[in-house]
Amino acid sequence: MANKTMDVTKEINPHFKTVWQANKPYNILKGGRNSFKSSVIALLLVSLLLPYLIRGEKANIVVLRKVGNTIRDSVFNKLQWALGKYHLLDQFSWTVSPFKIIHQHTGSTIYFYGQDDFQKLKSNDINDLIAVWYEEAAEFKDAEEFDQTNNTFMRQKHADTAFVRFYWSYNPPRNPYSWINKWADEKKSDPDYLVHESSYLNDMLGFVTDQMQAMIDRIQANDYDYYRYLYLGEPVGLGTNVYNMNLFHEIDELPDDDKIIYLYYSMDTGHSVSATSCGCYGLTAKGNVIRLNGYYYSPAGRVVKKAPSELSQDIHEFITKTANCELWKGARIRKRTIDSAEAALRNQYFKDYQQRWNPVAKKKNIDMIDFVQDLLAQGRFYVLKKPIPTGLRYCDSNEIFLEEHRQYQFDERTLNSDDPRVIKENDHSVDDFKYFCVDNAKDLRLKV
Question: Is the pLDDT of residue 395 over 90?
Answer without folding.
Answer: yes
